[in-house]
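#struct-pred
JK: can someone run the complex with zinc ion? inputs below
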Amino acid sequence: MAFAGQGGLSLPNRDYYTKTEEKDVKLRDEFVKHVSNMFQLIGETPDQAAKDAQTVLRFQTRLAENSRTPIELRDPTTQYHMMNPAKLQELTPNFSWDDYRRGAGAPATGDINVAHPEFFTAVNKMVTEVPVADWKTYLRWHLITAAAPSLSSKFEIENFNFFGKTLEGRKEQLPRWRRCVSATDASLGEALGQVYVTRAFTPESKARMKTMVNNLISAFRDRLQKLDWMSDESRKQAIAKLDAFGQKIGYPDKWIDYSTLNVSRDSYLANVLRSSEFEQTRDFNKINKPVDRKEWGMTPPTVNAGYNPLNNDISFPAGILQAPFFNPDADDAINYGAIGAVIGHEITHGYDDSGSEFDAQGNLKNWWTETDKKNFDERAECVINQFSGFEAEPGLHLQGKLVSGESIADLGGLYVAYDAFMKSLQGKPRPAAIDGFTPEQRFFLGWAQVWAEKDTPEAARLQVQSDPHPLSRFRVNGPLSNMPKFAEAFQCKAGTPMVREDATRCQIW
Ligand SMILES: [Zn+2]
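RT: done, structure tokens with the ligand placed:
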């Protein structure tokens, strides 16, 4: 089905427009300077460009004031408002959806989910209250900023100066070849993916991964069966959901057909534009058709994994099957702590505070008894409080409610991966120590190696303010401090920082 949601901002989210602390104001000043520089690059005078940049900020601030926060955007239950075409048109009398649809080349949508109705009510007002000249300036800005990475160096550098340097604290651009690979992956991901998997993803890797996923699912089922805070009624539903999990491993069975996409040597920008048109047409063609559950949301070379609540499936693109996530040369302990816990993490997403709102078929439907839901919410609250207590830098706390889904998934993923690892050892001689580390210690080292990284302070700030994933060091120290098995493995004593007392220890799945 078609859906419509809030948008139109250039800074990461609404908070960047509405917060009034000194550093927020300073960042907005930098943004206005950047917008002005870009307008000058397309030939405006400095005076005109400065004026237009202010218009863009004013316009986007009004959109921001009517947009939801990243925390609010994690709640699927408040983003489902089906409307028929007449009702939709009633919502925005000043804006013709039919004209828009025809202009965009979209098919008739039938009923549509308007995820954020209040946003469209606000935009409807802006259609008559904001002068046409300001609308033109705002739309011109979107055209330039979207095209900038594909234009000549002056545009690309100015774009990087703000979004790379100022916002993320990056010192320099990635080398050209890496940007070219990323651009190819973004535009022709499944064509690139076919080459990638023939070179970098063996049938043995796929088979080993399939076995791991099935081991993790089976360990998760065992935990569900033993869970003491859940009634048999909800437990039955939870297990039915697990049994219905789809699996996507490595690459899709059916590749996207790019034969209608024209790639030519005369203009890079034109190639990029044709590619986004191709993708948009592909999206439009799905409206009101049966869901293709075999379709992939990530390209094969992507180093990532995912759970899609709408399909109730987990995906592991070929790209994640390399160190430190999956190391064919390492022993099982390291790999269970790394890719094993990542698999467990994705499974647990089906049961986090957001994913658990969807049923086995991927419908937004409550399958919990009231008491069990209350029990779950109390346990989720423990994770939320714990993460709100972490500071990225003095005074900058993580947003527990923003990162709760990922943190619940990390915690559950580690517990289930640990179980699966222990199960894999049954009936075998105990593995020897390696470099002085026991198998249990190596399991936890595997997890820590996955998240070892270095951030600039700017990138850390950006992540805390906009990303549902907690900073990596807390993805390690957070969940592990809740696990008695970790304390046991490293002989940490009660009262030390990585050992929580029972009263503050979180455990859900
Ligand atoms: Zn996740």
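RT: quick notes.
Residues 345, 349, 406, 409 surround zinc ion (CB under 6 Å).
The chain is about 55% helix and 5% strand.
JK: thanks, will look after standup
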